[in-house]
């Protein structure tokens, strides 16, 4: 049975409006007798779970191909604008300068609020990458830090981007740990790169950030995980938002974008290593870090469908933003608009809506290989690594309790009987040890030695 489309106001679709010359983006101008329509897309190249609507999509050229296939008498030009966070994308959208943008769940809500406030309404039209437990956001500390749990952050300076998904994770995690986010920590409102520098300089005790910063800093040996966002067991995601006037004036263009996004999603799913290399080449990020998030069993699952679990999570996020006085009430139902993606993907949309994330698995990326190798257990992966100490580009293991993928050599390892179990953060490892008699924390070197 096909799910009932989410309630939305009716939209008048007049074909003549596609040919009207307007000065804002998404508009047209005459060129050699043929109208030229410029579509402006705002994206975040280094926020790599938006790549199917940004970096990867741009590199593949699928959107431009879909626009050409419209064959409606227009010539289309796509202008891609890259930003570090979602806030400037929202500012440009509400100024009428960006037509389509991608950003995280909390910035999406701010996008909705600002659009309504400034009479430039926007709508969430699809999803890019998501994690149903919240593993896209992580709190990290310096490699030599003595902090081992969130409770240790009392009185500490924590860098984050206020209003971001990572800030939402920090606020919720601190509350669950019995700390008041407004009084018990000193929050530093910083861009991710600035926060990374602050952590390295010692002017911040911890950093709470979104993909791909925690994984990047861990991979570089500049940080270690303190808290795995999946411990919250609340979905986090990034999505695509479009200006309402643009969507109404040019529905065929928006649908072309969403078809192209679905194509990029299929490409990533079918060729995850190649996709990671493409994104790495475009962003300067290590491909090993990109794969941690976007790989076959990565932290992010890519699917453009607007799953009910994600919409429900968005509704829960409103309270966090209101408490921080970043927004007032937000009508999530009015903001979420699945009509365009349903039409763009046709009968295949229902199948995508039902699809579940792939099961967690351990993986090794051999040097020079075009594919990774999967293993049934972390112990099997360790045995392989013990035999191939050279020639391995990266090794990944899922947290034994949250399922969050992490680098094998950066994980916290626990020995329980004859098994070695990996964890992203020390807190989850200690919780497992406390609940299992005889289990103990061991070093990665020890875990490798036992597997050899």
From TrEMBL:
Gene3D superfamilies noted in UniProt: Periplasmic binding protein-like II
Taxonomic classification: Bacteria, Bacillati, Actinomycetota, Actinomycetes, Kitasatosporales
One Pfam family matching this protein: NMT1
Domain SsuA/THI5-like, residue spans: 94-275
Record keywords, A-Z: Signal
InterPro entries: SsuA/THI5
Signal sequence extent: 1-24
Keyword Transit peptide: no
Name by which UniProt lists this protein: ABC transporter substrate-binding protein
UniProt entry tagged with the keyword Lipoprotein: no
Domain of life, source organism: Bacteria
